[in-house]
Amino acid sequence: VEVPVGTKDEYGKVTQAFNDMMLRLREAEKIRRKLVADVAHELRTPLSIMQLKLENYQQAGQHIPPEMLLRIHDEVIRISLLVDDLHVLSLAEAGQLSLYRKPIDMTVHLERIVDDIKYEAEENGLKVHLSVCAKPVIVLADARRTTQVFINLLTNAIRYTPRGGEITVKVEDQVIDQNKFYVRVSVVDTGIGIPEEHLPYLFDRFYRVDKARSRHTGGTGLGLSIVHQLVKAHGGFIRVESCINKGTKFSVYLPSGNERGEDREDREGN
Ligand code: ADP
């Protein structure tokens, strides 16, 4: 049997495709290794601290005081949240996160969320404003997941805004971007801001602008990557603008409920 001999050009193309594939595989392997290392590090630190504290009491033959138990309990909760966040992230990244979409009026939805978070903001000396449309603003979305998106953004706004600051949530309908209609929800704070050079990495897992500060404020470094993935799963996207010592604005774009085609397809998939 005579095997057709490829031209030099064809060999070149095959070799190129093979090299590209190897490069992508190597890249994926690098990302996987970094993730495992990051997760190990994130879990190792609080676990080591707890282990050390418990061993100190054990060696001294002392009972653990109730305040210490409370602190250890808080750490355990933080680790559980981290594991939950990682689970959601890995599902979303693999495209396996199930969304239970229903028509949601974003105005009512955000009124509830802002109401829930207001107390925490006030405790931190911050005012929260909500600016909404008079008409219902409908999005076909998963209520639980979108709540998670806005709670994460609002928690960050609270964390990174000094006392006396303000947080504004704005809901807008029929925002056009590249010929598509979106509902835009922006979360604006008057906080510490984010240096421009950090903005491209902000949605990466475990990325923190100021490591010491974030750890101190109790963040896991996964909040924004989850926000990004959840918004993406809804067919939307997110933008960020920031100015140091002036504040930050996150804008979430979700496909408008009036744009039927894509949403219906997605709903049937779930
Ligand atoms: P974390 O759990 O550390 O808050 P996130 O993924 O939610 O992690 O955020 C990543 C980093 O982005 C934070 O560590 C912080 O440095 C920065 N950041 C997020 N939101 C804001 C904000 N509203 N103002 C200033 N910096 C922010």
UniProtKB/TrEMBL annotation:
Signal peptide: none annotated. It is a multi-pass membrane protein. It comes from the Bacteria. It is found in: Cell membrane. It catalyses: ATP + protein L-histidine = ADP + protein N-phospho-L-histidine. Keywords: ATP-binding, Cell membrane, Kinase, Membrane, Nucleotide-binding, Phosphoprotein, Transferase, Transmembrane, Transmembrane helix, Two-component regulatory system. Its EC number is 2.7.13.3. The keyword Membrane applies. One of its GO terms (molecular function) is phosphoprotein phosphatase activity. Its main location: membrane. GO terms for cellular component: plasma membrane. GO terms for biological process: cellular response to phosphate starvation. Residues 38-258 form the Histidine kinase domain. This is histidine kinase. It comes from Seinonella peptonophila. The lineage of its organism: Bacteria, Bacillati, Bacillota, Bacilli, Bacillales.
